[in-house]
UniProtKB/TrEMBL annotation:
Residues 51-107 form the F-box domain. This is F-box domain-containing protein. InterPro entries: F-box_dom, LRR_dom_sf. The lineage of its organism: Eukaryota, Fungi, Dikarya, Basidiomycota, Agaricomycotina. Transmembrane segments: none annotated. It comes from Cerrena zonata. Pfam families: F-box-like (PF12937).
Amino acid sequence: METGTDALLDNIQARMVTILKMKQTYETAIAQEESALAQDRRLLNSFQPIGKIPMDVLLIIFMFYIQDTLPENAKRRNPFNIVRLTHVCSRWRVVATETATLWTFIDLGWPAWTIALIPRSVLAPLSVVFSSYSPVENYPTKSLTKYIFKHHPRRIASLKISAPHNIFTWLDIFIPLFLPSLRVLQLVCAYGEASTPRFAGNLPTNLQYFRLMGNLKWKIESPPLLSHSTLETLSLRLNTPDSRLQMGDILRALDNMPLLKQLHLHTAFSTLWSTSLPSIVQLPYLTRLSIVGQCFELCCFP
């Protein structure tokens, strides 16, 4: 009898020791969590309330968030992400509505959104795009296109058009012959054969990016590239030979493009064999060179 009682007492004592150890473990964990929570509270209390942050600092935070989380295509196709961010508080909304650079991406194929952008962009440079790969008639809004190119030609810093041939003919009616602030020009004929718009023969001399692609033919006496000393990217990916666009002239003009970083020549031209090319071309900043097509003589380096 005594032996059974002693065994029972030993078992109870062992369980009590285990319970005390578990209690000590839980008390230690609770103390650590309370300490961490107190530290978080001290850190939180050290933050400046958003209502007291200067507007210029809020602007930097806002722009960093937008550029870090939204790629360019997301800003173009789903710009309402920016609007959602402004619902955090009234000061965020003020930052968004007063930051003109957030409202400068003009898509001619999205008139309702563009009409809202124009007044918010104030006088900031505009990036105008239109993209359509359908061979059927799918024109931008006539009134919107006419308004932008008539009333804001000096604000257009970037113009990118990827469209069928009929769109180029249609846009050539509305685009003025000179866009003085243009820095980026991209023309891609996605379907059919089109003539290069008239304004491409009168580009500003401080152009930085120039790209032609597809079945585009020159209707201009000479290429507008020969005096662009500020050009950093030159890309010609043309499928249609055209005697007005002599590749030899463009290659000889490379000496006048000392800042050139990227050169892409993808052509179907066979006129290089009769041209006299320079023996040495100085392009100290060139980081990318791509030559494809009937330009075989360019591979014969001394």
